[in-house]
Amino acid sequence: MENKVYELLEKMYVEMNEKFSNLENEIKTINNRLNNLEEGQKKLEEGQRKLGSDIKELKQGQELIKDHIDQLDSKNANRHIEAFYKLNNIEKDIKFIKHKLHQTEEDVFDIKDYLKIIK
């Protein structure tokens, strides 16, 4: 009977050692997976920081572009006003030239008429 108890205890000891060995292996596997998750999290956090930095740079660039467009808009508005003013002056000059041309034609007509009388 002592032998049976000893064999039973030995069998239990072997089984418990196997189970502890399996548990240790599972714990190692879990620790490896946990380490991988932590490394992945660090990479994600670094990527998130870089993304935040990139977004900040994009916003700054966007503000610079807005400022540049605002400056261009004001310059274009001034150019439009200047062009409109010049077109008005050209229109006045054309009207004046037409008026002078008409006066010249009348003078030529009068001179021709006068020359007909003299002949």
Describe this structure in words.
This protein has 119 residues and is mainly alpha-helical. It is 98% helix and 0% strand. It contains one helix and no strands. The termini are far apart. 0% of the residues are buried.
Q: State the low-pLDDT regions, or none.
A: none
Cα-atom radius of gyration: 50 Å
Task: Note the overall shape.
Answer: rod-shaped
- Strand/helix succession: H
Strand content: under 5%
List how many beta strands DSSP finds: 0
Give the helix/strand class: mainly alpha
Number of alpha- plus pi-helical segments: 1
Largest sheet: none
Coiled coil: 6-47
Keywords: Coiled coil
Q: How is the secondary structure organized here?
A:
Blueprint (H helix, E strand, L loop, with lengths): L1 H117 L1
Task: Characterize this entry briefly.
The chain is mostly helical. The chain has one helix at residues 2-118.
Short descriptors:
119 residues, mainly alpha, coiled coil
